[in-house]
């Protein structure tokens, strides 16, 4: 897998530092609020696991799964709800945990979904933000790292289900996916 990586963008230490910084800020901001922390599957599992260990609060945890890439390197523009959350969000403070915000479509879809269900507040924490990829207005409240408009994998991010288990974030060599 490492041979398929053009360059490393963020090391394990960079990611650990980002998790600690974000966890401290969320702990401060959510004192006494008992948020529901919702991880967006599958990409956010590594980040969410590390992040919540750095948050010193009572919280509920749930997961939601949506798909827009459908195995490719670009968002299809069509969002499909694959797995819904189990917790009622009405009147609750929600913190979405995302691996990356790229086009913004998934985030907008999720925010609208939970707003319609009566969430008290909705904030977003993302490990990585790719502002150059936006096609709709979307903004995270907590951003760990900014990434360039390149195809990145590792630490939860994948290409056709592969590379999620890399302990760092790297740019995938174009030849790996360009003929697909």
UniProtKB/TrEMBL annotation:
State the UniProt keywords alphabetically: Cytoplasm, Glycosyltransferase, Magnesium, Metal-binding, Nucleotide-binding, Purine salvage, Transferase
Keyword Metal-binding part of the UniProt annotation:
yes
Cofactor names: Mg(2+)
Entry EC no(s):
2.4.2.8
Query: Which GO molecular function, any one, fits this protein according to its record?
Result: glycosyltransferase activity
Decide whether keyword Magnesium is in the record. Answer: yes
* Intracellular or extracellular location(s): Cytoplasm
Q: Under which pathway is this protein filed?
A: Purine metabolism; GMP biosynthesis via salvage pathway; GMP from guanine: step 1/1; Purine metabolism; IMP biosynthesis via salvage pathway; IMP from hypoxanthine: step 1/1
Q: Which residues form the Phosphoribosyltransferase domain?
A: 8-159
Q: What is the enzyme's main class?
A: transferase
The protein's annotated catalytic reaction(s) are: IMP + diphosphate = hypoxanthine + 5-phospho-alpha-D-ribose 1-diphosphate; GMP + diphosphate = guanine + 5-phospho-alpha-D-ribose 1-diphosphate
Q: Which family does it belong to?
A: Belongs to the purine/pyrimidine phosphoribosyltransferase family.
Q: What the protein does? A: Purine salvage pathway enzyme that catalyzes the transfer of the ribosyl-5-phosphate group from 5-phospho-alpha-D-ribose 1-diphosphate (PRPP) to the N9 position of the 6-oxopurines hypoxanthine and guanine to form the corresponding ribonucleotides IMP (inosine 5'-monophosphate) and GMP (guanosine 5'-monophosphate), with the release of PPi.
| PANTHER family referenced in this protein's UniProt entry, alphabetically | HYPOXANTHINE PHOSPHORIBOSYLTRANSFERASE, HYPOXANTHINE-GUANINE PHOSPHORIBOSYLTRANSFERASE
Name this polypeptide is given: Hypoxanthine phosphoribosyltransferase
């Amino acid at each position: 897998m490492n041979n398929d990586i053009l360059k490393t963008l963020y090391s394990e230490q960079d990611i650990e530092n980002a998790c600690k910084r974000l966890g401290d800020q969320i702990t401060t901001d959510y004192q006494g609020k008992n948020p529901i922390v919702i991880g967006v599957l599958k990409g956010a599992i590594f980040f969410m696991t590390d992040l919540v260990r750095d948050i010193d609060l009572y919280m509920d945890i749930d997961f939601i799964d949506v798909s827009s890439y459908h195995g490719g390197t670009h968002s299809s523009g069509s969002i499909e709800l694959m797995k819904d959350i189990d917790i009622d969000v009405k009147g609750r403070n929600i913190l979405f945990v995302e691996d990356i915000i790229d086009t913004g479509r998934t985030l907008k879809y999720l925010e609208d979904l939970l707003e319609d269900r009566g969430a008290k507040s909705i904030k977003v924490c993302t490990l990585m933000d790719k502002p150059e990829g936006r096609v709709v207005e979307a903004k995270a409240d907590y951003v760990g790292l900014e990434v360039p408009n390149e195809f990145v994998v590792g630490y939860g991010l994948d290409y056709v289900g592969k590379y999620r288990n890399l302990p760092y974030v790297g740019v995938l060599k174009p030849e790996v996916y360009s003929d697909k």
